[in-house]
Specification:
Elements: H1 17-31, H2 46-50, H3 61-72, H4 94-106, H5 115-131, E1 138-142, H6 145-162, H7 168-171, E2 179-184, H8 190-197, E3 205-208, H9 218-230, E4 234-241, H10 253-263, E5 266-270, E6 295-298, H11 300-303, E7 311-315, H12 318-325, H13 331-334, H14 338-341, H15 352-355
Parallel strand pairs: 2-3, 2-4, 4-5, 5-6
Antiparallel strand pairs: 1-7, 6-7
Helix pairs in contact: 1-3, 6-8, 6-12
């Protein structure tokens, strides 16, 4: 970007939102036409344009918009192009992209009751109905499958420790000998990362062999449970994958529901990629039992064409989830008078401002 020292624009220019959008709309429209048949950027000359040292002075809105129009947008990755099958993450359709832009400007607040917060609650309710998740489950929008799985497994950890009179959220993961989470060898590695972040450690994740269809072998799982219990370890949860990223395999969820009830384990379903396949009559039987899971994950930014950064997690026990993650809010969020509280989200049954950025 050019150094515009001494030529700073009038601050009021930054408020001309309509003009700013008009400056980049033609480039966005051209990008969305997918005419060249190439999903990726053919040239890499843009790297030299972007890799600059920190400028001493701002370039101004016109220069930034020109960079968007001429360099960034034309060289974006066309994941929505016909025939592009490279990733499990799809491109957003037009309306979700515009809605995300609008929410970023008009709906960033989480404290008071306003339309975007209500719409978030409504969207979660619709998503539960769409996917067959019980309406009583607590739902949260998060940034994607990594955080969604972290929250679901955090609830599992809280549940398992509380059964032994312990509170891991308050006192840490102490008191249970060698806790174990069981999943297939095809599981996404975010499960191991979640175990590490939650203090259980990556070694706590036990990978169970799969059958000829790359689904978790329930018989092998039973044997591992017996072995670990005999060795003094503490099984706490099973993670079923509803659509692996490598083959699309769906673990035998109904059988795992039965096993978890017998063994006293939490069942978490990672459907970040594949759960929307429950809407297809041909594949719906693969997901039998999913409504009985203790927690579930889905990423609308994969099959449901929302912008990237949209995951969802559903947990059976809302109070348990709050005990696992809730902290007292900042003073400036907690000092509203009684007249203000009537306009907050308590009346909706959800208190987004207590849940933090990554939990709503």
């Amino acid at each position: 970007m050019a150094d515009t020292r001494g030529d700073c624009p009038d601050p009021s220019a930054t408020a001309d939102l309509a003009a700013a959008m008009q400056a980049v709309l033609p480039a966005l429209a051209e990008f969305a036409r997918y005419r060249d048949g190439c999903a990726g950027a053919a040239l890499t000359g843009w790297k030299g344009v972007l890799q600059e040292p920190l400028p001493r002075h701002g370039a101004g809105p016109d220069a930034v918009l020109a960079l968007l129009r001429d360099v960034l947008i034309p060289n974006g990755l066309r994941t929505g192009a016909p025939g592009f099958c490279g990733w499990v993450t799809t491109a957003p359709t037009t309306v979700p992209a515009v809605a995300a832009f609008s929410a970023g400007i008009a709906g960033p607040a989480r404290m008071l009751l306003q339309p975007f917060n209500l719409l978030e609650d409504l969207a979660l309710s619709w998503l539960k109905e769409l996917l067959g998740v019980p309406p009583t489950y607590q739902g949260l929008f998060v940034s994607g499958g990594a955080i969604a799985n972290l929250i679901g497994l955090g609830a599992a950890r809280q549940w398992a420790y509380e059964r032994h009179g312990l509170d891991p959220a308050e006192s840490g993961v102490v008191g249970l000998p060698e806790p174990r989470i069981y999943t297939s060898t095809e599981v996404h590695r975010v499960v191991h990362r979640a175990a590490a972040v939650l203090g259980l450690g990556r070694r706590a994740v036990v990978e169970v062999p799969v059958d000829a269809d790359y689904r978790l072998d329930v018989g092998a799982l039973r044997e591992l449970l017996r072995w670990d219990r005999a060795a003094g370890r503490t099984p706490i949860a099973v993670v079923a994958t509803a659509g692996t990223v490598n083959t699309g395999a769906v673990d035998p969820i109904a059988a795992l529901v039965e096993l978890c009830r017998e063994e006293g384990l939490w069942l978490h379903v990672d459907g970040a990629y594949g759960l929307p396949a429950v809407l297809d009559p041909e594949t719906a039987p693969l997901f039998a039992g999913v409504a009985a899971a203790d927690s579930l994950v889905v990423d609308p930014h994969k099959w449901l064409a929302t912008p990237v950064g949209c995951g969802a997690v559903f947990v059976r026990d809302r109070d348990l989830q709050l005990r696992a993650f809730r902290l007292n809010p900042a003073d400036y969020l907690d000092e509203a008078g009684d007249d203000e509280r009537g306009r907050q989200l308590q009346g909706l049954g959800l208190q987004f401002h207590h849940l933090g950025l990554e939990q709503t």
